[in-house]
């Protein structure tokens, strides 16, 4: 007998959205500390150690610093666009998670005032085009650094904006093609259907290892991670699109970056690594460990690989990754037909 789930209400969806915003923001903030410690250990350093035990309160110190810094707007900048650009980067990362079953569903205890008894679903919006929605919202995030670089009336910002347009648009092609083959196998764009299919069969990673690798590489490029952080490469363009930013507006770019890293890890987990199996012994803990491992790999790549030149970045995209993605889709289609 199939268990009937409680009715999803507007209150449950709003609470779910608040949980996603609060938890992912906190994890993104902790990610900055984690990255500094991981890179330090890989480089035989200690990293943050003085503020709190093992430097854990460095997150709080950085937050206070960002909130108390002066918010400077350049004299000749387009003030409105300059001010809203950081919010675009952060908002799109969180909105993308609306179609992903991020946390398990639960019902709020009856004894709680106002919201007692409200059913909170595991997914804010169970869209039948969930993957398309998530990737589309992440693609819309390119408007953040693009508008920021163009609005600040600074040559380094213009260079960062130009690199944003070229890099993000190029690697969006690879991202879309890399998930196309798994979509052909499952026959759906819903994360729930991907999750159910892998529960019945096995991880899609074993069917599509090439697509998994392509998705991760394109994900590093779309989240502006080393070795693809050409949008703000300090040795070339000072800080690129973020050159003139300070205070919390500067911090919002990095909240968006780390939130996007978490989003990429979650999408890869649900598309390729089995997603969430409620019948498994560890359940959501096992899913969280897979997401954490993919996040750690992003930090590992930064410690292991040097920056690439812009021409090398484009060469890798159009002459290596995209042909591989197209070949993978063609082979998948032939195998399915045969």
Which tags fit this structure?
single chain; 2 strands; mainly alpha
Instruction: Assess the beta-strand content as a share of residues.
Output: under 5%
What's the multimeric state?
A: single chain
Overall tally of domains: 1
CA-CA gap between termini:
36 Å
Query: Mind summarizing the main beta sheet?
Result: 2 strands, antiparallel
- Overall radius of gyration: 21 Å
Number of helices: 12
Strand order of the largest sheet: 1-2
Task: Describe it.
The protein is 64% helix and 1% strand. It is mainly alpha-helical. The protein has one domain. The protein is globular, with a radius of gyration of 21 Å. It starts with 9 loop residues before the first helix and ends with a helix.
Short précis:
The chain has 338 residues and is mainly α.
Helices and strands in order, then pairings?
Elements: H1 10-42, H2 58-68, H3 79-96, E1 106-107, E2 119-120, H4 130-140, H5 143-151, H6 155-186, H7 191-200, H8 209-222, H9 234-237, H10 247-272, H11 284-304, H12 310-337
Antiparallel strand pairs: 1-2
